Amino acid sequence: MGVEVTVIVPVYKTEKYLRRCVDSILQQDYKDFEIILVDDGSPDNSGELCETLAKEDARIIVVHKKNGGLSSARNAGLEIANGRFVCFVDSDDYVAKDYISTMLVTIKAYNADLVKTDYVEVNQDNYITPKSEGLPEEYEGKEVEKAFLNLHVDSACVFLYKKSLIGDTRFLEGKTSEDIPFNFELFQKAEKFVYLPAVKYCYFYNSDSISNGPLDKNMFNYLYFRKNIYEYYCQKGDQELKNQAESLYARSAMGLTARMALYGIADNLDEKKCKRELKKEFKEHAKAFYRDRRIPFNRKLLAFSVFNLYPLVKKCGRLLR
After folding, report:
1. In angstroms, how far is CA 57 from the centroid of its own chain?
2. What whole-number distance in Å separates Cα of residue 192 and Cα of residue 31?
């Protein structure tokens, strides 16, 4: 039987946070939804907890599978999703009580293909999201592509998608930063997009998360995906979109260098080699980065510092750690 919204929650080694996550979804002020918990071969007790939660609420569906990574788990959820609309919540995060209703009302009111809200990084269990919010921003046609670049769209967890828009699009498996190509493909297909500047998603800063910690080889996927998008617009011949994509490409090289300086680097990587290659990538596209008025001054200052004062930034990183 169909439901209005499917919430897909990949689960892996998050038994400490899973109930908080699921409770925040069950406590939504909108009730016509299903939750698909995808146990991605978790070695802890997360799988058993998924079953316990399913017994407590009939809207919860549990899928157990061999470990295949975040993308694989999300794709497994998409295969059985019954909702007209789909959203994603990571199992160590949690959402505001109107996370679903706010996006659902907006996507219907504008007859949009997808809608985006904002997130906040938290390190506590009971963060209350701000009530104040800006007016919705509507994008159509070419403006949808501009929005993808202007808003630095990285995470799938702040979106509500029409399931019909997703169609057969799936997350790339075996990769990190997989949200970027997934969203890029959907933004290419979308006719209308709405951005609602309101914080509805709480990204819990989990020190054990794969997205935190020192620079490792998987994080270079972020750079490669941004490079692919830049090259796409080079071939397309749209100068405005090309400039925006180039700026983001340079920014990603800067971001990886800053992570390496501030948080260290994995033992299996050569710091000097990575530093040299990232600096080369940035230097080739630095003009687009520094000319981009949308990039705040503090980011430009950080770029100058990591590429010209790397030893000093590294010392600061050691003090912070």
Report:
1. 28
2. 26
Strand, coil or helix: what is 66?
coil
Distance (Å, rounded) from C-alpha 181 to C-alpha 189?
13
Pull the structure tokens for residue 173.
């498996």
Entry pTM: 0.92
Q: Residue 158 in 3-state DSSP?
A: helix
Query: Cα separation of 183 and 88, whole Å?
Result: 12
| 14 phi, psi to nearest 5 deg | -130, 35
Bridging pattern class, strands 159-162 and 83-88: antiparallel
Q: What is the pLDDT of residues 136-162, one digit of tens each?
A: 999 999 899 999 999 888 899 999 999
Q: Is the dihedral of CA 49, 53, 55, 59 positive or negative?
A: negative
Mean pLDDT of 240-269: 94
Token pair recorded at residue 68? 């295949």
Using CA atoms, how far apart are residues 246 and 236, in angstroms rounded to an integer?
A: 13
Assess contact for 33 and 4: CB atoms under 8 A: yes
Distance CA 74, CA 37 (A): 9
**CB-CB contact of 241 with 182 (8 Å):** no
User: What gap in Å lies between CA 244 and CA 148, rounded to an integer?
Assistant: 10
pLDDT in tens, 155-205: 999 999 999 999 999 999 988 889 999 999 999 999 999 999 999 999 987
From start to end of the chain, where are the E strands? 3-11, 33-40, 60-65, 83-88, 94-95, 114-122, 137-140, 159-162, 192-204
Token readout for 120 is 């906040």
Contact 271, 265 (CB under 8 A): yes
Looking at residue 273, its amino acid is K
192, β-bridge pairs:
140
For residues 266 and 215, is the Cβ–Cβ distance under 8 A?
A: yes
* Alpha-carbon distances, residue 20 vs 16, 25, 40 (angstroms): 8, 9, 18
